[in-house]
Design brief:
By secondary structure, this protein is mainly alpha-helical. The protein contains six helices and no strands. The protein starts with a helix and ends with a helix.
Length: about 100
Amino acid sequence: IFTFIAMDVLHPCVYLWTVSNKFSVEEAKKMSCLQKLTSVPWWKSCLASAILNEQTTNIFRYVAPAYNFMLPLLVFYNATFGVSGGFTLVAVGAGH
């Protein structure tokens, strides 16, 4: 379930949390390390740059279909994957 939540919710939420952040690189250069660590705009900028980049988007784009494809096969390896798949099916819905 965590993987679906992360892929479906994390990206849009981070965008909405950080879209109004007007923190620039020039401002960061003027700040000391302690000021950066206590600055909310600096942390928003770090979060946005870590999550809202092309590499993370590509990981989310390809991991979800691979997970959906591999889950039925992994059930034969370990029953825990079947329980996880059952919870995911209930949480997401059978039609998705």
